[in-house]
Amino acid sequence: MFFILSQECGDYVLAYVFSIIKPILRILQMAAPIVLIVSLSITITKQLLSGGENKKITKGMIGQIIALFIFFLLPWMVGAVLQLIVIDNFDEGGVSYTLGSCWEQAEELTGEIKQAEDKAVGTGNTGTSLNTNTGSNQTGSSQSQTPQSPATRIFIGDSRTVGMHSAVRNNQNDIWSCLSSQGLSWMKKTGVPQIEDKIGKNTAVIILMGVNDLGNVDKYITYINQQESKWRKKGAKTYFVSVMPTDGNRSDLNTKINSFNKKMKNNLSKKVQYIDANSYLKSKGFKTTDGLHYTNDTYQKIYQYIQTKL
Question: Which H helix or E strand runs over 225?
């Protein structure tokens, strides 16, 4: 499981690089002024001994004073410049962030990621059923019996999934592979490969992807259908959770979300169970923190609803 990078910093590589550079700049901020002060003291002494008439020494003093201020203010200056650079990390209308925000949070965020990785994929995979499944996973079935809950639930998703994990992280049956501001490319290269060996008999693979790259719907359909066939041979069941609604300043995404969901529902393999969390939230109500990400109460509501569909 990978922890959220937050909407202010949607790129792990940036956060990681910044977390390395910042301590180096802090060392320069502390060490360079000390060296410059010593050097300046020597220069001032030379100037006094020369009677204050040596213009070359005077220019050297001015340069050292300027360098002293530059090194002292260096981290702040870097952050100020980066604050002017805005990154839009979504292919289709997603949230943007400034490099300055990523710079400010880099060390804290990479620290959180490291802690989360220590508890990562496979943590708590005990094979014990929680018996929280209250609905049937057989589409169109009229039987009232409750099916066996999956021994392992694997959630693959973006920052919304990370938010849900944060809200319900005490569940030992769950494996999480999720990272903020990611889409199909990350899912194929990292999200799925890092949990592939955890997929087996009586495993529920639950996919919550799409809000970050709504224009990739056809590629999502092709990829998920291919993976479902492979996972089914291992004894696993694949679920796709519809992209859920937005509100406030992100409500403009809902038209694209509805179009994405409709195409996914109509073209995913019949072996992929479609969970319509979008309609569920619209009917039950939901709250967001920024128009895109949900409150803990809403994440818990989503998690419980997904369980009833497994």
Answer: helix 217-233
Identity at 305, one-letter amino acid code: Y
Domain spanning 121-308, CATH class: alpha beta
- Which residues of the chain form CATH 3.40.50.1110? 121-308
Q: Is the dihedral of CA 170, 288, 221, 117 positive or negative?
A: negative
Cα–Cα dist 25/39, whole Å: 20
Judge residue 292's burial from the number of C-beta atoms within 10 Å of its C-beta, 0-12 exposed, 13-18 middle, 19 or more buried.
buried
Residue-wise pLDDT tens digits, 240-271:
999 999 999 999 999 999 999 999 999 999 99
Q: What is the C-alpha end-to-end distance of the chain, expressed in Å?
A: 21
pTM for this prediction = 0.59
Residues 6 or more apart in contact with residue 98 via CB below 8 angstroms: 8, 82, 83, 84, 85, 86, 87
CA 15 to CA 9: how far, in whole Å?
Answer: 7
| Token pair 């997929």 in the structure block, residue | 199
Rounded to whole angstroms, the Cα distance separating 206 from 130 reads 16
